[in-house]
Model the fold of this input.
Amino acid sequence: MDKRARRITILGALAAALFLGAVLGFGFSVISAHTQRENAEYMISYTMEEEPELTEKVAKILKESRSAEVSGEGKEWLDRYGYTDGYYRSGLLPAYMGISCAGLAVIFLIWLFWYTKAERGRTQRMEELTAYLEDVNQGRETVLARREDSFSILEDEIYKTVRELRRTKEEACRERQNLADNLADIAHQLKTPITSMSLMVQLIREEEVNRETRAYLERLERQISRMEYLVAGLLTLSRLDAGTLELEQESLDAASVMIQASEPLEPQIKERNQTLDLQMQPECIFCGDRHWTAEIFSNLIKNCSEHAGNGGRITIKYHQNPLYTEILVADNGPGFDREDLPLLFQRFYRGSNACKDSIGIGLALSKALVERQNGTLRAENAANGGACFTARFYTDRSISGIS
Done:
């Protein structure tokens, strides 16, 4: 409770006490006057019936009794016949209790009204602050109404915290945009020499060269292809970071997407005598971008093929429910090292079992693309051995928790 509320409470208690005292005093004066009048009426009536000639004298005595001094003999006479102070107070006790209860009831009602009003105000303030924080969490711009009350300190701290968070977010967005721009610039700068190198290799191939030179050309082509993949990946990542990569939302058949993703890898799979097992029955439909979803699973299948070894098996299967569509890509290779699992989706990270031509952006790109399509991607070692990638595409955009 702040100082202002404490002062209001103290003043309210004093006002209630004064009010109760005034009510009791006024009530007692009214009761006393009423009692005196009843006694006077009784005495006059009795005198008029029994001693009519004394009526005027008795009335004069009653009128002058307020200013007359109390006679000691009169008090003794009254005490002898039972007219003591207690006798008169006993008649006032019910009235005293009634007035006291009425005064307390009035004070309680006033306090209840004040407390209810204060509690309603506190609840309203809490609801306002909660709504403000919910708007901030949802990214909606809103203004916090400032007031001077018991919540002012909390309100001020919330305002300063939100302002600092917004400033930090803006700086992070600017840095992320700068990084995306730099990546895009680097990728564009690399495209020109890579294209020139590729044309030069094609021109040399058209000439007659010996076997050793042809072997060098084949190695050079592999490196050029690797550089082209790196440039394409950097451009895609920069567009994802900048939020400029347009992803369409259409109904996709999982089997057709997996076929599209695996077609470019068929020569590699056949060369290693591997088996690609598509367990995609019955029909599985989910929403996503066909081209980039195929790119996601092409990277995952490629990773499994590189680690399954000669004669290995790559299995693709799915699970679907009203909340999400889950697609698993697994191999029967050695699986991931425990130290690599937390770092697999970091950009340019190469695990301990990575092949020599690996760049380290394929899995990072796949994870970013899955998350942009309201999904999650995780890697783990299967219970029966081998690596397993699990991609989930959620139906409701509020479920995945990806911002």
About this structure: The two ends are 39 Å apart (CA to CA). The chain has four domains: 1-65, 73-140, 153-242, 250-394. DSSP finds ten helices and seven strands in the chain. The mean pLDDT is 78.
